[in-house]
Amino acid sequence: MINIYEAQVANKRKSALIVILFIVFITVAIYIISQAFSVYLGYEPGGLGVAGIALLMSGLLSFGSYYYSDKIVLKISQAKPADRSRDFNFYTASENLSIAADIPKPALYVIDDSAPNAFATGRDPEHAVICATTGLLQKLDKTELEGVIAHEMTHIKNYDIRLASIVAVLVGTVALLGDFFLRVSVRGRRSKNSGQLAALIMVLGVIFALLSPVIAQLIQLAISRRREFTADAGSVAITRQPSGLISALKKISSDHEPLEAANKATAHLYIASPFKDKAKGAVGWFSNLFNTHPPVEERIKVLGKMV
Amino acid sequence: MLIPLLVVVAVLAFWVISTYNFFVSSKARIKAAVQEIGNQLKRQADLIPNLESSAKGYLKHEKGVYKDLTDARRAISSAIKSGSVQKMADAGAKLASILPNIQVVVESNPELKASEVVTKLMDELRDTSDKVMFARRLVIDLTADFNVKRVSFPSSLVANLFKFGEQAGIITPQEGEHVEVGKEELETPKVKL
């Protein structure tokens, strides 16, 4: 048994640890690849350097998606604004929980889809959106709905969406940089100062260019999963009723209808993974590495320990 | 030698300033959260007469319920006039306590249960008392944060330096019936259907 305050502190620490690991890895990867670049070119590229250009490109791309993320996602998912009298429970529960979470009431949207699910998006608490499917609103009672909404509000309050965007920029940078390097080095012009060290750096550069985008993505997914646990703990801190979220997660995961509005680009936003394929054992462990969400059973187990 | 010393002093000053700012800003947030309770109770006081008049026709045979509602409204409006947080909180708690009684009356009467107006009344009443409850929750959470930081090391140094007192939050007696476990509560509840 742990209390919610301890759960929150532990979660924050683990989350910070993964983010630090991620930053260290990205820095090392960028450093090695750019070193290999300069060995290859025979001089240190001036001005921004190759790493700078890659950072700038991926930054610009992600900034656009970050700034307009809420509008794009709502458009893709065909969401409509929620109405107080029609979606009474959804509307009032969000109003009430935003009082307790001490954030402005987010804009509320409803997707017409019978698969129960919900997500939050937006760049900060002032520009946040919570979106629920009609399936969720019909199948959950008020306590369960409160658990789900409080989970989404924790994502908003913790700036998870901002963190996810920054992480995406860094992953993009590494991927672009690795791509640049592989493209030029494959053309095969050898540099003049080919010592043993230079050869080693080249080999390291190729290895990093090949592997680091995958590793960076794996850490990105680990961050995403850790933030789900954090949001679960935050949800309990707001509602003080783990049972609501537990039974909501059970209902959502036992529902086998696929969510038509979700695709790979929006999957990480939802409260539970909208894709319902499951594998057990070693294969399951391996496929879990590539999941945006931790398994529901594990989340329920953790929630059950909270008082 | 001078530069490292300056860095240490700067870091220390930064920490003292940010800790000081934590205390003053959470004091302001507690104050705002208390005002939010008042705001929600005001909403409640405005809402109940409206609900009363719309559900009047349905509830006229249920004199008890009607009287409870009117009493709750009176308590709320007098609490708002007095401006005391404690009275406002008490009034909100009173409304929350009569909700189950109304629920019982509504459940036992199929005609009332089927009526949309009464369902709406119940939804709105539950919602308004939830709002007050969550507003109070925020005051409790914020004061807990403040008081924990105030006594825990090293932020307690800053709190003592600037003489930040303990925040009262929502006053609840530390002794009394609500912290004792009665004989009936120790027994396993039996549900008769």
Structural write-up:
- The complex is a heterodimer of chains A (307) and B (193).
- Chain A has 307 residues and is an alpha+beta fold.
- Chain A folds into 2 domains: 105 residues, no CATH class; 172 residues, Zincin-like.
- Helices cover 66% and strands 6% of the residues of chain A.
- In chain A, α2 runs antiparallel to α7 and α7 runs antiparallel to α8.
- The mean pLDDT of chain A is 77.
- Chain B has 7 helices and no strands.
- In chain B, α1 runs antiparallel to α2 and α1 crosses α3.
- The mean pLDDT of chain B is 79.
- Chains A and B meet through α4 of A and α1 and α5 of B.
Features:
heterodimer, A: 307 residues, alpha+beta, Zincin-like, four-stranded mixed beta sheet, elongated, B: 193 residues, mainly alpha, de novo design (two linked rop proteins), 7 helices, 80% helix
Low-pLDDT residue intervals, each spanning 5 or more residues of chain B: none
Poorly predicted parts of chain A:
none
Q: Gap between N and C termini of chain A, in Å?
A: 7 Å
* CATH level 1 class label of the largest domain in chain A: Alpha Beta
Report mean pLDDT of chain B, rounded to a whole number: 79
> Gyration radius of chain A, to the nearest Å?
22 Å
Q: Give the SSE order of chain B as H and E letters.
A: HHHHHHH
CATH topology heading of the domain at 30-164 in chain B:
de novo design (two linked rop proteins)
- Adjacency order of strands in the biggest sheet of chain A: 1-2-4-3
- Per DSSP, what share of the residues of chain B sits in E-state strands of 2 or more residues? under 5%
